Write the structure tokens for this entry.
Amino acid sequence: MNLEIISYSSITSHSASSNGETITENLTDAPFAEFSKSIYKKLEVPYPKFFKMDELSKLAFLAGEIVLKEIDTANWNGEKVAIILGNKNSSLSSDQKHYESFKDRDNYFPSPAIFVYTLPNIMMGELCIRHKIKGENSVFIQEKFDAQFLYDYVQHLFEAEAYEYCITGWADYLPNNYEAHLFLIRKSSGEDKHPSFSENFKQLIR
Amino acid sequence: MENLKEKLKVEIIELLNLEEMTPADIANDEILFGEGLGLDSIDALELIVLLEKNYKLKIENPEEGKKIFRSINTIAEFIESKQ
């Protein structure tokens, strides 16, 4: 089955981009808390819950907003949409914050708001809630961005089940080392209007 | 009591990441959960931790919590009644 890439987004500590075009740059080398807020404001997203998310979820959320900006997700059939992502460091940043909150037995106040983000699946949940996605959502912990694995998995999903869209790619966060690259995939219309999933996603295999 | 209410608003805004809100945006009698300020169940747990950590007050009974966390007024009254 021929699939095509409808759109793609990228966020690193240097910039955020949509389909290869820069949306905003982190010219002051601002930390993620500041840079993510500037992207959020740039995108003009009315979603206050963003500020309650952990960093990994914020990263994926922003990349999701960019990759889906041309899609009316309020009215799409969420049952026919899947998300399959790769990630290296799981929710390690939140895990460490959580640990800091209870390691001192004399100052033992674990934060429920941090605890709920101590799984990478929560990032997927935030994306599903935001975009009403009800299909398969899976995040695979990988040593590095395994594009071959993700390509095979997504290709199989479309062939085995009647999905209309799939968001795939990579979202990984450590305080000074983070990146998200999301791709919106669907069955090829045959018009050669969008890049082929097969030819273009495989270029990422390294 | 007014100072306590202002302090609570500052603490809640910071603790719950109510970005772009100021203490002036929260009325003393505004309903905190549901249709009011829109706080959720995780926020409620954070408020329980806040009372324990900053005011050494424990809430054991969930029904009691519902009444205490109704508004800034009710939280302040609870703290005052225990001090």
Summary: Chain B has a mean pLDDT of 92.
